[in-house]
Amino acid sequence: MSWVSVAPAESIAPGDFATVELADGFVAVFNVDGEFFAIDDVCTHDGGGLAGGAVEDHQVICPRHGARFCLRTGAALTPPAYEPVRRYETRVTDGMIEIQEAP
Ligand code: FES
Description:
This protein is mostly beta strands. The strands form two sheets. Strands 1-9-8-4-3-2 form a six-stranded antiparallel beta sheet, with no helix packed on it. Strands 5-6-7 form a three-stranded antiparallel beta sheet, with no helix packed on it. It is globular and about 40 Å long. It is 0% helix and 45% strand. Bound molecules: FE2/S2 (inorganic) cluster.
């Protein structure tokens, strides 16, 4: 997957998030203190959406059962999730957030 433009950077303020639809599903994009992070919007525990979950210390907390995922790596940090969530690299080009699946 090459870089995909997903949203204007100014449309997601620090502390905010957005979901975008790609060909194979939804991606949650978070702005943490001006830095963008993107992961699949699907909890690996039971498929809940992760967008809208509370964000603390670069971790998103699944709104359904409370599993924590690292926004930097996609790692599942606490039960009941054990598998990582797919993560994307992000960059801003000409004011647009672009994402690319992380290796
Ligand atoms: S669906 Fe996310 S912790 Fe259960």
